[in-house]
Design goal:
Family: Belongs to the FBPase class 1 family.
Protein name: fructose-bisphosphatase
Bound molecules: 6-O-phosphono-alpha-D-fructofuranose
Order of helices and strands: HHEHEHEEEEHEEEEEEEEHEHEHEEH
Keywords: Carbohydrate metabolism, Hydrolase, Magnesium, Metal-binding, Signal
Number of helices: 9
Number of strands: 18
Strand content: 15-25%
Shape: globular
Radius of gyration: 21 Å
Distance between the termini: 48 Å
Strand order of the largest sheet: 4-3-5-6-10-11-12-13
Helix content: 25-40%
Subunit structure: Homotetramer.
Catalytic activity: beta-D-fructose 1,6-bisphosphate + H2O = beta-D-fructose 6-phosphate + phosphate
Largest sheet: 8 strands, mixed
Length: 379
Amino acid sequence: PTVAQGQLSTITLQRYLSSLVSSDESLREMEGLMLSIAMACKTISTLVNRAGINQLTGLETDVMGTRSGSQSGKGKNKAKKNIQGEDQKKLDVLSNGVLKNALKFTGKLGLLASEEEDEALLIESALDSRYVAVFDPLDGSSNIDASICTGTIFGVLEDDTVELKNEYKRNNDDCVRNADAECVSSTEALLQPGSQLAASGYCMYSSSTILVFTLGGSHPVIGFTLDPQLGEFVLTHPNMRVPKRGTYYSVNEGNSWLWDASIRHYIDKIKRGEGETKKRYSSRYVGSMVGDVHRTLLYGGIFGNPGDVKHRNGKLRLVYECSPMSFLVEQAGGGSCTSDGGSVLEVVPESVHQRSTCWLGSIEDVQELKSYLTPEETN
Ligand code: P6P
């Protein structure tokens, strides 16, 4: 469903979603989830915008001395690490709590996975819910102290094990067992390929706060901008479509000496104006996936985190970064692929925090890149 340009500013997220549900009752639960995610994003937006004022910049610390039992108790502060071994920022922890609680209290999710949580969260009271959610609560948080854009990335999946669970007996060791009493991981609903997403999106915290999402199927990619005066997300991008071609490439060239030769060759060609369009491409790279993907969605071009000899699978996480973003870009008429030319959306995750190489953007730019990619070789 799209709306005439003139009507845009009067349509809030709440009104848009309720109009969807009135024509399709099966979206009732999804409406509740999206409103909870939007509420959490409003809170995170305020936290991010006031980080400097509320001394919420900097690292989440773990006071060492008191743990090692030193007399003084004035231990040296040491940054806490997430399961990725990355320093956690204060706002990573806060944003994670805000989103986790917002989703838990919907009572509509039995399972959550977050970049900031080592293990998937089982919500006993809602284990038989229809959906599970995956999210990166504050992607690009290393940019926070410099007030560069950050974002929340989320995905919603049908819990395809719910029916099975009715046959399984829950076991007190927190796994579900099938009829043969084999332990079936109760978190397998999270390990679905991106093609199975029921919804995905992001909220970007930048010069404005913009919530962009899609419900897949016949639904558009749609964007709502937070009106600080109203405190409401209002419809500003009714039907986002990626231009078929762009003139920007967005990748961390600092790693180019470590890339596979095929990728170095591609980037070299397009920056020299020797690619298919014969136009010279410019580099645009914020180092914050949500900002780089949002620009690519609007202006076209190609974004990538290709992996290299040191990080074969790149830096981005499949389940809550690559899959949701690839799903959204492809729904907007763009393309996506891994660095060996495969489909991001067909990669079946083996673990919640696994990484994947990822390219996404204008369909013709992604197709041109794929013509350079050789099967992934060891360097
Ligand atoms: P690199 C931020 O840490 C992040 O997860 C994404 O937001 C961003 O696209 C990527 O890492 C940046 O990676 O290797 O360029 O620092």
